[in-house]
Design brief:
The chain is mainly alpha-helical. It contains five helices and no strands. It has helices spanning 10-32, 36-57, 64-75, 87-101, 109-119.
Length: 123
């Protein structure tokens, strides 16, 4: 309870957070050693997996090739837009890309409402 005020025990969270930050830094270093094409492919695979698995948690089975095509199109990759995608795929891809590419942006009520409208359009 108490949303949007969120409280936690720092001494319980900080060791895990420090480990994740260390691993994240290591991964970023490894990614930088790859060429642009391999970086783009790795990002595309990870984002595709994230979208498909996130949707599966909610009980929605999305076609991974549709998701991949939608992400590639939005990232300006050559294979983007090869497959036609549906509103469900486009909505979750848009929200996921906003959340990951704008991770430093505050999660305001306006942003949350925007995500909601994207995922559940009226009409």
């Amino acid at each position: 309870m108490g949303w949007p005020a969120f409280h936690w025990q720092a001494d319980e969270v900080l060791p895990t957070l420090a480990d994740v930050r260390h691993r994240h830094g290591w991964l970023l270093g490894r990614m930088q050693s790859l060429g642009f094409d391999l970086q783009a492919e790795a990002s595309l695979r990870i984002l595709t997996s994230d979208v498909v698995q996130t949707s599966a948690i909610e009980g929605h089975q999305l076609d991974a090739d549709d998701v991949r095509s939608s992400i590639a199109r939005r990232l300006g990759l050559p294979e983007g837009g090869i497959r036609c995608t549906n509103r469900d795929v486009e909505g979750i891809v848009e929200v996921t890309l906003d959340a990951t590419t704008n991770a430093a942006a505050p999660i305001s009520a306006e942003r949350l409402y925007g995500w909601h409208a994207t995922l559940f359009p009226v009409g």
